[in-house]
Amino acid sequence: MMLVLLAALAGQTPLDDGVLVIRRDTITVARETFHVVAGRPGAGAAGWTLSASARYELARPATTFAPILELGTDTEPRALQFDIGGAQGPSRILGQAGRRRFTLRYLAHAREAAREIPAGERTVIVDDSVLSFYVVAAWRATPAGTALTALYPRDGRREQVTARDLGTATVSIRGSPTTLRHVVVAGGAAGRVDVWTAADGHLERVEIPSAGIVADRLAP
């Protein structure tokens, strides 16, 4: 299924296409490659698809995360495929939107489980280890703050967060002062997540201060 989805997306021009270098307290712990394209497999130009591949190598064997998230034209999540590799062996999470709910199926070691999570009118899929997914929350942020239901597929967690657009600010990116749009996603277990995007919407930085995490986009 993963190969089918990737093949369907291969011919599309990315709206954003980059690599995040993820550091914890100045130590590089992972790299994450991400792609945002217009359209969804089987749905033509409707909506968007965000795919990512993150590899954490501090432990052996390395832990890998490879999700593909399909979004509707309203940026609501429609479908998810999330492959995970590591010491416990490979596993997969499949997600599908329903009426005011999001159904998750967990597939691992010849076992299967399912879970339905209530979804609000404004839902985002996020993950503590796949940081590019926070860009969708940044899309939905407003100066007054947008209330969002955040779903964490790996542990089935559901949290209420607020995405607030703080406008532009100058920060040091790759050693150079850069003016970026600053969005704060607050209210979940992480406390606060800072998302920085360029004027064209490209993701430049994600910070999780409570975990000492900073993910900066790799220079082209």
Structure description:
The longest helix is centred in the N-terminal third of the chain and has 8 residues, at 2-9. The two termini are 30 Å apart. This protein has one domain: Clam (outer membrane lipoprotein receptor (LolB), chain A), CATH 2.50.20. The protein is mainly beta. It has two helices and 15 strands. It has a 15-stranded mixed sheet, with helices on both faces. The protein has helices spanning 2-9, 134-140; strands at 14-24, 27-38, 48-56, 63-71, 77-85, 91-98, 101-108, 111-118, 123-125, 146-152, 157-173, 176-186, 192-197, 203-208, 213-217. 7% of the residues lie in helices and 59% in strands.
Keywords:
outer membrane lipoprotein receptor (LolB), chain A; 220 residues; mainly beta; 15-stranded mixed β-sheet; 7% helix; globular
Kindly report the average pLDDT value: 90
Structure classification? mainly beta
Q: Please, what is the oligomeric state?
A: single chain
Q: CATH architecture, please?
A: Clam
**What proportion of the residues is helical, as a percent range?**
under 10%
Low-confidence stretches: 1-11
At the fold tier of CATH, the topology name is outer membrane lipoprotein receptor (LolB), chain A
Shape: globular
Largest sheet: 15 strands, mixed
Helical run tally: 2
Order of helices and strands: HEEEEEEEEEHEEEEEE
Task: Name the beta content range.
Answer: over 45%
Distance between the termini: 30 Å
CATH level 1 class label? Mainly Beta
Number of structural units classed as domains: 1
Rg over CA atoms: 17 Å
Strand order of the largest sheet: 8-7-6-5-4-3-2-1-15-14-13-12-11-10-9
Number of strands: 15
